Amino acid sequence: MSTGTPLSPLTGSPLSRRRLLGVGAAIAGAAVGSGVLSACGGSPRPTAASSSKSAPALVKPNGKVTLTLWTWAWPEAPADAELQKAFETAVPEVTLSVKKFPYPDYTTALRTGVPNGTAGDVLHLQTGSMIKQYAQYLAPLESYTAEAFGEDWRSQFLSGSVEEIEASKVGLVALPQQFSVGGVMFANNKLLSSVGGALPTSYDQYLALSPKLAPKNAVAASWGAKDDWPNTDYLVQFASQWSPGIVAKAEAGEASFADDAIVQAMKFMQRTLKDKLWNAAPFATTAFPDAYNLFFNGKAASASLGTWGVGALYEGSRLDDWGAFLWPTLPDANPDPWLPAANPEMASDTSKSPVRPWRTVNVATAMRSGLDPDKQWAAWQFVRWSCSKEGQQAGAKIYSPSRVDVKPEGLNERWNALYDWQNSLSKFAERREFDYPETRTAIQTAISACCVNNADPATELKRVDAAAERARTR
Known about the structure:
Keywords: Signal, Transport. InterPro entries: SBP, TAT_signal. This is Extracellular solute-binding protein. It comes from Microlunatus ginsengisoli. Belongs to the bacterial solute-binding protein 1 family. By secondary structure, the chain is an alpha/beta fold. The chain folds into two domains: 17-180 and 360-430, D-Maltodextrin-Binding Protein, domain 2; 181-358, Periplasmic binding protein-like II (D-Maltodextrin-Binding Protein, domain 2), CATH 3.40.190.10. It is built from 20 helices and eight strands. Strands 1, 2, 3, 4, 5, 6, 7 and 8 form an eight-stranded mixed sheet that branches. Helix 3 (79-90) links the parallel strand 1 (65-71) and strand 2. Helix 10 (229-239) crosses helix 19 (437-453) and helix 19 runs antiparallel to helix 20. The longest helix is centred in the first third of the chain and has 17 residues, at 17-33. It is globular. The two termini are 38 Å apart.
């Protein structure tokens, strides 16, 4: 399955590594591919005011309406037909036509199709730079949402999911269909116990795992640094140990990328390489799929997954063999006892100030503005259904739900508790996405310079400041 989102297909049936890694490879492109949007020109930058106009009244059509969805994030057979049928059964007035693109082709199609009005009636979008680019062409949804779900509609979605869409200050122009808490480390408990190890509660404990695992040709953690996009995830997380939200503030011009918190995070990334925590030469040899193959094949004790990786649990004995934990407190970081709930598996011995995870709306569902009345009605029905309990339950075998009242099927009691625990962290999670692709690219360049060539973090991060300022003001 290749949805292009950072989640594995959530299914009660066995899931192959090949299918999961296809998804991961797609998001590796998605995380950096959105840079094409702004780098190649495209539409003028939207403002919050451009999407704050009141939504037009909806009128139910007299006959059948054909609605077109543009997406890169639609399942393959047979799940594709099952999901489409579920929607058309719920809304029999609408026939859904799905146009699915490979992710790089999707970004290209959006660049021309959205501004000239030839794109789909409903669109799947990523938060951050993509949704910011096209917000001015999307219909405002708040009045529809309150009417459909009630005035308390925000409380029906996992904490952070709606906020993730609104973080780009473009108004509510989409609803979260898929939402994940990432950056939580999955662990191979069976492998750890085979060398007398356990889930680490300090960096020293984490580091001590590698020599124990070496005779098994395994390492403490796998990192697919060659693909670049996992690197910004780690920097965002590690910087939060010194100052939560600092990377997002720096992109907005409210702080500097050369802030001590980000500098310290970069220095810690350099340290982990010198300490040989990871697989050998991750920047030179290990792409995202390779890193997860190490973990899946028992050659790494841990890997960064989170709720988007739940689908991997359904293969073999992983529901029994795997666990989850947060990066323990980083050396020399400020005490920050933010953790709202103890890990069910580490209740008495968890790090008091672990590294915060990140959150992302894998897929936000939007409708274009300016549709004719019949299409407007049909488009809202698709957005509403996709984000309703009914629609989320239909998709819960395929993607990580965004609603509080829907969960993946097939988890055992232990992993149900771990899944709930991860979602309880979303309120405190770091924002993963960037409003400007130029910012992400500049950070990735800085990380490579520091981690591969041992460049000075402060010097490299000042260059990120310059790139972010150009992106904000151009």
